[in-house]
Fold this sequence. Notes:
Blueprint: E1 2-9, H1 10-25, E2 37-42, E3 48-53, E4 59-65, E5 70-77, E6 86-88, E7 94-97, E8 102-105, E9 111-114, E10 122-126, E11 138-145, E12 149-160, E13 164-167, E14 178-182, E15 186-190, E16 195-201, E17 205-212, E18 218-226, E19 237-239, E20 257-263, E21 267-275, E22 281-288, E23 293-300, E24 316-320, E25 323-328, E26 332-337, E27 348-351, E28 366-369, E29 377-380, E30 385-391, H2 393-401, H3 414-427, H4 432-444, H5 454-465, E31 499-503, E32 510-511, H6 521-536, H7 549-557, H8 563-582, H9 597-617, H10 623-651, H11 667-686, H12 694-705, H13 708-716, H14 724-733, H15 738-750, H16 753-760, H17 766-788, H18 806-820, H19 862-884
Parallel strand pairs: 15-19
Antiparallel strand pairs: 1-30, 2-3, 3-4, 4-5, 6-7, 7-8, 8-9, 10-11, 11-12, 12-13, 12-14, 15-16, 16-17, 17-18, 18-32, 20-21, 21-22, 22-23, 23-31, 24-25, 25-26, 26-27, 28-29, 29-30
Helix pairs in contact: 2-3, 2-4, 3-5, 4-10, 5-10, 7-9, 8-9, 8-10, 9-10, 10-11, 11-12, 13-15, 18-19
Amino acid sequence: MLKLKEGFDLHRDVVLEILRKEASVCRMTEYSEAVDARLLNIESDGGILYSWKGATGTTRIGKYDQNTKQNKLLYTFDKQVCISSCSLNKEETLLVSKCLTLLIEIHPINNTKVLKAVDCRVKVQFLHQDGDRKSVLESHLLLFAEDGYVDLYHVLLSKQEGYRVVMANPERLSKTAERIVEDFCWVQWDGHTQRLHYLTFKDKYLLRCVQFHPNNNCETVLELHLNLPANSFPTVKFVNLGFDHYHDEKPSRELVRMRVFTNPIGSLCVFYSQPLKDKKELIYTVVLVHKDCTKRFRVDLASDGSSQNSQQPHPLFIPIGYYVLVYLQGHFLHCINTRQQEMLCYSLFFSGHDVNSGLQCQSADIAVLHAEGRPTCLLELVSGKINAVQLSSDFLLQILRSDTCSRWPGSAADPQRLAALHCLLVYMGNDPKLELKIMSWVCDNVNTIESFDLIQEFILASWYRIGYNRFLGLDKVLPFSSIFEKKEVPGCLLDVPCVCCTNGFHAEPVFKGKTRGLLNFWSELQCNTERTKSLDALMHSRYRTSHIQAEWDKLKSEKKPSSHMDHMEENAKKVLSMVDTWCLEKKLVPLFQEEDHQQRLLIGLTVDKLREHINRHLPRLGKKKIDSLVINYVAKLLELIRQMLESAWAKYKLGSRVLCLMQQGSPAEWSVFHFMCRILESTRGLCLPLPPGYHTLFAVFAIRCLPHNTFLQYIDHGFLQLTETFASRLMTDLDNSKANERLKFSILKRLPEVVEQRVYHMWDHPVSSASISRDYVRGLLEKHNKYKGIAAAGREKPGFRHEFLPLTYLANTLSDIEAQAPNPFEEQENVDASPAPADAGTAPSGNTAKGSITLYSFPSVAPFRARWSGSCRNEHSQSQTDSSS
C-alpha cells in the first residue's frame, strides 16, 4: 500500500562520519569504539539535531544538513549528560538543551545560562523568524512544561565587531518570559507553519489553535469543542516536540491518541482513537473542520480474520496528501478520503490478511513526521532511518486488475475498485504513463463492474482532477462521481464489511483573530467552512450533467439560427481551439477533423451551464478564473475521449485500413466498436458532448462490423447518428451492387431533406443524375421567370412537388399567372356597360335594363392545370417504378 523512499540514515550519514573523524584524530585506520548516536529534534528548515557520547566521557551535539549532506559539531559537554529535548535558533548561535534547561550561546563563545530549573519534563523549541529579514536582533523560544503551561522567551541579541552576535543582558533573560498557554493536557507543534495546537479541559475538552506570525506575535485563531471522554489524558502528551529517549512512556498509558493535520488549500482534520477495554473493537473519530462534519468509525478486530493480538492499542495516523491512513498493524488499514467523505466507497479499507502496508518494522517503533506542504516521512526510532512515504500506484493498479485482491467476492469488491480508481485518477493522475495504464484497464473491463459505470467514473474523476487542487469549494460544486446521478445507490457501495461508520456532531468551530489577507490559511479555512454550510443547505449545489437534458432537447429542435445558437458556437470555438493546442502531435484517431453542428452545440451548452452554475455558487473565484476553469474542464472531457480511443486504437494495432467501407471488420475492430458503443452510452447517460467526428467514426466501424439490417436498426433506434461526412463517403466508396444500392436508398431515406439533396449529387447513379437534371431545369425556369418579372405566388398544392419534373413547375407557373390575372366576376369600376351587338355572341336577356352590366364567361386555366398535374403524377410514379426495378 505504501511506497517508501529512502532518506536520512543515522548510521550511514552520521555514525560513519563520526567514526571516520575520530579515527583521524586518534591517528587510527579504524575507530573501534561504539558510538551511541540518538536523534533529538528536526527543525522546520529540515536540520536534524542529534547527540552522541564520545570515548572520553563527553556528550556532543551536532546537526546534519539535509540539503548539503554535511555534519556540524555544535556543542560539547565535558561529561556525559542526558539530553531529552533540544532546539537551535535559525542563526545557529543559540542552543537549548533540557539538562537543567540550559540556554547555551554556542557562537562565537560558549556562554551557558540556566533558563529554568524544574523537576518536571520540559520541551523546548525556537521560533523561526521570517527569512527575508536582513537583521535579526532577537530570538524567540517556546518552553513547554509538563505542569501544563507554555512560556515564550524573548532573547535579545547584539552585534559585536560587526559580525559577532551575542546575548544582550543575559541576566535579565528570565524576566522576558511571557505566559501564552495555561493548563494544557495535550499539545502539538507544527514547525513548518509555526502553529501550536493544544487541548484544555473544564467542562469539556476544548482544542485551541495558536498562530505565530512572522513578527513573532501570536494569537488564538480557532477554538473547537471535542467530544472526548473525561480523563482521556492522565499525563501530558507532547507531539512533534523532539524525541525523548530517556522518558519511558508505556503505550498502555496513552488512553487517547490524537493528531491534527492541515493542508495549504484550507483544510483541517482532527483524528483521535479510543480503544475499548476488551481490545476487541477500536473506535476512531475524524473531525473534518473544513467539511463541517464528524465521522465515527468502529472496527471489529475479532472478525477481521487475523489471529494476531495487537501489541499496539492505538493505530498510526499517516497523512498523505488529502488522504489519511489509519493503520493498526496486523488488523486493518483504512485510507480515508478527507475531501470526499460522503460515502465509504471513496475510501480504501483492508483488514486481516489483505493488509499490506509496506512498512518494514513494528508500528510501535514508528514516528510520523508531518509538515504542511511537504511529503510525509516515517522515522524508525530504533534504527534512526527517515523515509518519505507515498501511496503505491502499483498496489492500487493491482486492486483494479486482480479479482482475488479481496476476500469479498463479486460486487462486494467494487467499493475497493472505485476508491482505488479515484485515488489513481485524482491524487496520482498527473503521471501520463499511469493514466495510459488506467485507460488500458478501463478498455478491457467496461463490462466487469456491476455497481457503477466505469467509463462515467473515469471521465468524472479525471474531470475533477483539473480543479480539486485549486479551490476547496469546488468539492461541493463540481461533479466527481456518477454515483450521485443514480436514483438509488447500490447497497454494496454504502456498507463495507468489518467497519461501521456513523455521522457525529457538526464541527462548529469558532474563528478568532484578525483576517490577514486572502492567502492566509485561517481565513481560507473559515471561508471553506462557511461555504460548506451554505452549500449543504441547498438542494442541488453539485452540478449534475444530466440536468441539462431538457435544455439540450429544446436546443436540438430549433431549426432557424438564433443569437442563442451563435453564443453556443462561440463557446465551442474556445473549447476546440484549446484542444488543438493540446494535440500538436500526430493523431492516431481521426477526430476533430469535421464540422459536427449538433456536438458543437452541446459543447457550447455544457460550457454555458457549467459557467452559470459555478458563478451562482462560487462567485468569489472571479469571472476570469471561472471562464478559464470551465473551458479547460470541457476541453479535458473531449481530450479524455480521444485518449481513450487512441489507447484502444494502439492496443489493437489498428491502422488507416479500418476507415475503408468496402471491407468487413476484424475481431479487433469489433472490440473497438463495442468500446465506442459503451462510451456513447455512458456520455448520453450524463448528457456529455463528444468530439466532432466521433459519430462518423462510430458509423464507419458499425458499417464494417454489423449486418446492414442491424446497422439500419441502430439508426432507427437513435443509437447511431448519421452524419453528412459518413453519408457522402458511403455514396462514393461503395459500388452499386444490389445490396449496396438498397443500403444507399435506405440511408438517403433517413437523412434530413437538406442533407439528402447535397448527398444525392455525390452518388454516381441514374437516380442522382435525374435529380441533378431536375435541379438544373428548375434553376433555368426560375431564372426565366425572374427575367420576365413574374412573381411566384409561393403556395404549393397537395400532391405537387416542384422537384419531380419540369412539367410540374410549368403547371405551378400557370397557376401563379392565373392567380395574378383579374377576376372577371368581380365588380369593376369605369367599365363600358354597352350591350354587345346581337351577332357578337349571346344576345342580352329581355330583362336587361338600360345601363346594366352584361356578364361574359371566359374559359379558366384550372382544368388545364388539373390535367397537367395528373400527367405529372403519372410520369413521376412511372419514374419511381423504373428506378426501383
